[in-house]
């Protein structure tokens, strides 16, 4: 469930309803239609209730995005490729079988127009990257990956192709992509261009 | 300049004006405000003129996106890393110093809601990938890269991190990222996890 960062004064039920309503408004109307008023109407709540929890519609939008999927648990199969594959396959399932990508596309557009929203989403992205970073860091500590690897860069290379396929190339994600990306990014085995 | 795919019946000037107006409307109002009527008004042209060139507002939007930057020429420095670096640095400059990213964000949102638009943008993306693919293919033909490499995958890995930084992580692109991505994706030099 979402990682609520404020105490819930009126019970999780009411807050959940507002977040659900926020996602519906973002999904149906996109960022231009996303106002505190529209969400309050959809949730059957007062604007005052919304403002008690969220100071801006941008903060509400980020919390609603946060609620779209749980951070994945950190797997530990003993093999770093298998751990990363579990995380990436779980993410591909979210891209393919939930409303998340449509919401994220709306959100990316809104963030281009509002730097405060971009900053909030940067935090959210950092939290979502953490399981991949944790798996890579552990493998490095165990000597399975080179100590010289830049793990932030490796995390970029492992995750970015899935966003790219969906939002830029508009191509379906082929069944082998997770394994091919991992094999290329984590393994040697091809000639250097030197 | 844009790769116009239809004969221009009333002179390039008029068509250019419409494309420019289309970009302004997309930039200012986003996809919800992007209609043939709004673009015609901004261009000072009739809707009939627009429909002579474009059958739908989606087709016009794609041509306008196509006009935002020229396909890059294919460099040939003799060293594949340098060739790829030239292409990626040129793309980073487009991301950092032009209205393109804001337009692309609006476009990605619109494409999630309209499969025809996604298909048109898939074609545009394929054409924009071609210089990178050409450089990699030539390096493979010259024996500088392994014959077993999946060059489509390598192109994904080389380009996706820049979209990811801008649109998902909302982080500035650090000066060394182009070189680090190329070094990791095209080189060996780190331990396998096996």
Automatic annotation (TrEMBL), chains A, B:
Q: Which UniProt keywords apply?
A: DNA-binding, Transcription, Transcription regulation
Q: Which residues form a coiled coil?
A: none
Top-rank taxon, per record? Bacteria
Task: Name one molecular function that GO assigns to this entry.
Answer: transcription cis-regulatory region binding
**Looking at the UniProt feature table, which residue ranges are given for the DNA-binding region?**
35-54
Q: Which residues form the HTH tetR-type domain?
A: 12-72
Q: Which PANTHER family match?
A: HTH-TYPE TRANSCRIPTIONAL REGULATOR RUTR (PTHR30055), TETR-FAMILY TRANSCRIPTIONAL REGULATOR (PTHR30055:SF148)
State the name under which the record lists this protein: TetR family transcriptional regulator
